[in-house]
Design goal:
With about 110 residues, the chain is mostly beta strands. The protein is built from no helices and 11 strands. It has strands at about 15, 25-30, 35-40, 45-50, 60-65, 65-70, 70-75, 80-85, 85-90, 95-100, 105. Strands 6-3-2-1-7-8 form a 6-stranded antiparallel β-sheet, with no helix packed on it. The protein is elongated. The two termini are about 25 Å apart.
Length: about 110
Amino acid sequence: MRQGHTSLRVNDKVEVIAGKDKGRVGKVLRIDKDKSRVVVERINMIKKHQKATASQAGQIIEKEASIHLSNVMLVCPECAETVRIGIKLLEDGTKVRVCKKCQATIATASK
């Protein structure tokens, strides 16, 4: 895969295929194309110790850390399985994502 290229989009449903959260499913929150990393909802949680400031007390914040793109796979909305994604060119010239298993068009998820 070229650096900075991914077929994933924000709000896509993905499954973790490697690492401590293997098998867990979540929604894509952010994608960092430069580093080939993705932040998935409630996956790879870390604890961040935040120092006290004049306006608020110190606290420990739990938040999602990024994981590498190669460790996640898209879950097809039609066949509900983890799938590879293909690109198909329609007659009107638009590109769409296609499930490699069931050949269904994967629409870009809306917020």
